[in-house]
Automatic annotation (TrEMBL):
Its EC number is 6.1.1.16. It is an enzyme of class 6 (ligase). This is Cysteine--tRNA ligase. The keyword Ligase applies. Binds 1 zinc ion per subunit. GO terms for molecular function: ATP binding; cysteine-tRNA ligase activity; zinc ion binding. GO terms for cellular component: cytosol. The gene is cysS. A motif ('KMSKS' region) lies at residues 271-275. GO terms for biological process: cysteinyl-tRNA aminoacylation. Gene3D superfamilies: Cysteine-tRNA ligase, C-terminal anti-codon recognition domain, HUPs. Its cofactor is Zn(2+). It comes from Helicobacter jaachi. Zn(2+) binds at residues 28, 209, 239, 243.
């Protein structure tokens, strides 16, 4: 059984899908006016992990994450940089996808953009007008009347006017201060506009998500549109409250059965300034740390708790990843299906075989690991179970290094970690050579060849000198029965 913490009921609830064995998840994606920061990374990784768990447990998952490409902030940036909004948002969408790929976050099944869903947005606004929930102000603005939704506030337990509301121009048009804009009439040349049945203008932020969910994900004949709506805790109010209200008023259904929110990333400026400066951008962190090392660090704190980003902790957490790869290297010759290396969802077709292998000789690990993850993603417990498995496996391999079935079982356990956590996904050899350019790698390889020639010629002094030279560069050489390998230490 899976339990998850529902932000509305404020308690852990057993997960019961709307339709058996299916999960429909919507995550609020970024507003694309700047590069993605560590907060985006954390949110993306948190719900990527949930998605992987559902997939692993044989749920049919539809995962949608949008791009908000119509927003005040995009228009502002476009004016500041003298770039048209389309070019600007295209640039930041590509940059976001590149960063997420580096972090091992799987692409969503559907990635809708507000600009591609304007007819659906307009249809929803029309429906809200027809049903009397929305009203037109002056200047072609359209607002949702919060007073008409008796359940407004049920998501956040808040109903006050938020700063996001008060930003809206022509606020005097509103019947009540806390009403929010569904449509913003064109305000002149420092604005952007699209044609609509309500005149030229653009949609408000909140309606974009409601309409995209309706278009791409929602059940039309159930009490709830989708199973899980997720995003950062900062979105609960007003964004999610408003999304829920619009959908409820327009469709008569509740938007989501469960609401999941991830905690913030706090940055302690002084501690962080080590090599990252005060940069909060993923692209800057990726210049120094491999994406998998960042992922490993960011997933180590429970998704609902605040993460105090600290570069020393990041470096320290790499030891966990090193241990996974150290063991993976020891069982690298275990015969296992190549396809098990596929990343989900491509790996799904081999999942049954993988689970069978993992459960056959060492059932305890996978059972305990899944139990921890299924308990509202109890990552600390899950990671301590991984730690135990690594330690037991190393001991067992030392005792019986030639036991092929043991190697297969261990390799299968690691493959489960790869699928579920997205860690350990590289070839072990290349992991221990991370951070070197292709040219540097070639130079090392040619020195190793030179050393082998020296040994063949019994010129041991030269061979030793070459080994020492590499050691001085931080390169450790290992002579094994399969040949010489090397690692960056
Ligand atoms: Zn949203």
């Amino acid at each position: 059984m899976i339990t998850l913490f529902d932000s509305i009921k404020k308690q852990k609830l057993p997960f019961s899908p709307i339709c058996e064995n299916q999960v429909r998840i919507y995550v609020c994606g970024p507003t694309v006016y700047d590069d993605a920061h560590l907060g985006h990374a954390r949110s993306s990784i948190a719900f990527d992990l949930w998605r992987r768990l559902f997939l692993f447990l044989d749920f049919k998952v539809i995962f949608v994450k949008n791009f908000t490409d119509i927003d005040d902030k995009i228009i502002k940036k476009s004016l500041q940089t003298n770039t048209d909004v389309e070019t600007l948002s295209k640039h930041y969408i590509e940059s976001y996808l590149k960063d997420m790929h580096a972090l091992g976050v799987l692409r969503a099944d559907i990635e809708p953009k507000a600009t591609d869903n304007l007819p659906q947005i307009c249809t929803m606004i029309e429906s809200l007008l027809d049903k009397g929930y929305a009203y037109a102000g002056e200047h072609s603005d359209i607002y949702l009347s919060i007073a008409k939704d008796s359940l407004y506030g049920s998501i956040s337990q808040r109903t006050e006017s938020s700063p996001a509301h008060s930003r809206i121009q022509n606020a005097q048009d509103k019947l009540e201060d806390k009403d929010f804009a569904l449509w913003k009439g064109y305000k002149g040349k420092e604005d952007i506009a699209y044609d609509s049945p309500f005149g030229k203008g653009r949609p408000g932020w909140h309606i974009e998500c409601s309409a995209m969910i309706e278009q791409h994900l929602a059940y039309k004949d159930k009490d709830f549109g989708i199973d899980i709506h997720a995003g950062g805790a900062d979105l609960i109010f007003p964004h999610h409250e408003n999304e829920a209200s619009q959908t409820r008023c327009a469709t008569g259904r509740e938007l989501a059965k469960y609401w999941l929110h991830n905690g913030f990333v706090n940055i302690n400026g002084e501690k962080m300034s080590k090599s990252l400066g005060n940069s909060f951008f993923i692209k800057d962190a990726l210049k120094i740390y491999d994406g998998e090392i960042l992922r490993n660090y960011l997933l180590g704190v429970h998704y609902r708790l605040a993460l105090n980003f600290n570069e020393e902790d990041l470096v320290q957490s790499k030891k966990r990843l090193d241990k996974i790869y150290r063991l993976k290297k020891r069982v690298a010759d275990a015969p296992l299906l190549d396809s098990i290396h596929d990343t989900p969802p491509h790996a799904l077709s081999h999942l049954a075989h993988l689970k069978q292998l993992a459960l056959k000789s060492q059932p305890h690990f996978l059972q305990a690991f899944l139990e921890a993850l299924s308990d509202d993603y109890n990552i600390s417990k899950a990671l301590s179970i991984v730690e135990e498995m690594l330690s037991h496996s190393n001991d067992a391999l030392t005792k019986t290094p030639k036991d092929e079935s043991l190697k297969v079982a261990i390799r299968a356990n690691i493959a489960c970690i790869e699928f579920l956590l997205g860690l350990g996904v590289k070839d072990a050899q290349s992991y221990f050579q991370l951070g070197l350019s292709e040219q540097a790698k070639q130079e090392i390889e040619s020195k190793i060849l030179e050393r082998q020639r020296a040994k063949a010629n019994k010129d041991y002094a030269l061979a030793d000198r070459l080994r020492d030279e590499l050691k001085a560069e931080g390169i450790e050489i290992m002579d094994t029965p399969q040949g010489t390998t090397w690692e960056k230490v």
